[in-house]
Design brief:
- It contains 10 helices and 11 strands.
- The protein has about 325 residues and is an alpha/beta fold.
Length: about 325
């Protein structure tokens, strides 16, 4: 009997070979449904038995005793966060250190990406208490919702006043910078009034990798625990399919590079600057990165107690190694 997996994930390019059936398994079929926002439910009658999940939200679920999903050490979304700090083109701010004492907007306090971005600030000596934080919608087209949860601190971490869109506030000069995983509409236009904070993000990101040894993981693969128990091989099989799809996509991307004029330069720079294993899955390859993130979650008071890699991946490691 073939196991059917319904995977909820963003439409990452590297999933295309899996979507087209160029990568397949004789004992598992994977149906991928595109999701635009998170979290997506898993179990409890959900249509999904596998989901792309925020790293931070999964850790929060584990700490709260919610074990419906197991974490598979395959990070579907990775990225350096230096490029996600934006400001006005006429702003005098050009360094991480210059954010001390400034008003900073965030799209969500506990979000994995923003946790990693605050880690960059902490690395440069800018702690949470050294800036003023405001959580809110990026633009008027984004929904008004609670983006702070229980993490608000009057006078330090607050909602955007009057629910004003952060990009408008940045444009008006009230906010000094905004942390966002996705750039607002118009950001890439020549006439945009916004820019990345750092004049040379690429060099900063390369230096960061040289220091820590990884590209931060932001979203990871999770599987319904009931499925994992019933099919002990399923977690590894699903992870392997995604890895094979990513590898095939990378090979084709290098061959068919004429989609944008400068992508060959980007592919060459990545290949020369990072080891070939930079996006590998597996617990061993991601142990340090995962451990560092769990430390940040505790140090930034998002988790009330520290978690270990074994707390989060221990069961998954045993299942995947014995499958």
């Amino acid at each position: 009997m073939t196991l059917k997996i319904c995977l909820g994930a963003r439409d990452w390019d590297y999933l295309t070979p899996l979507l087209l059936g160029d990568v397949s398994s004789p004992r598992m079929t994977v149906e991928i449904n595109r999701i635009s926002s998170m979290p997506a439910e898993i179990g409890r009658g959900s249509e999904y038995n596998a989901v792309e999940t925020s790293f931070s939200r999964h850790l929060t679920a584990v700490e709260n005793g919610d074990h419906r999903a197991i974490a598979i050490p395959n990070f579907l979304m990775r990225g350096f966060r230096h490029a996600c700090i934006i400001t006005r083109k006429n702003s005098p701010l050009t360094t991480i250190e210059s954010l001390a004492g400034k008003r900073i907007g965030v799209t969500g306090w506990r979000d994995s990406g923003n946790t990693w971005t605050r880690a960059i600030l902490r690395q440069s000596g800018v702690m949470t208490e050294d800036a003023y934080w405001y959580a809110g919608r990026l633009t008027k087209d984004h929904p008004i919702q609670d983006r702070l949860g229980e993490f608000g601190q009057p006078g330090r971490i607050e909602p955007m006043p009057g629910e004003e869109p952060m990009m408008k506030s940045l444009s008006d000069g009230w906010l000094d910078a905004v942390f966002t995983p996705f750039m607002p509409e118009g950001f890439f236009g020549r006439s945009s009034e916004f820019r990345q904070l750092l004049p040379d993000c690429r060099s900063a990101q390369k230096s960061y990798f040289d220091e820590v040894g990884y590209v931060p993981g932001i979203h990871m693969l999770t599987l319904d625990r009931e499925v994992a128990h019933a099919y002990p091989w399923a977690a590894q099989e699903l992870s392997d399919l995604i890895d094979r799809s990513r590898k095939m996509w990378t090979t084709k991307r290098r061959r068919y590079a004429d989609t944008t004029p400068f992508i060959m330069d980007e592919l060459l720079f990545t290949a020369s600057s990072l080891p070939a294993t930079w996006d590998d899955s597996g617990l061993q390859n991601n142990h340090k990165m995962a451990a560092d993130f769990m430390v940040q979650m505790y140090d930034q008071n998002i988790l009330p107690k520290p978690l270990t890699v074994e707390d989060v991946f221990g069961y998954e490691r045993d299942v995947m190694e014995t499958a």
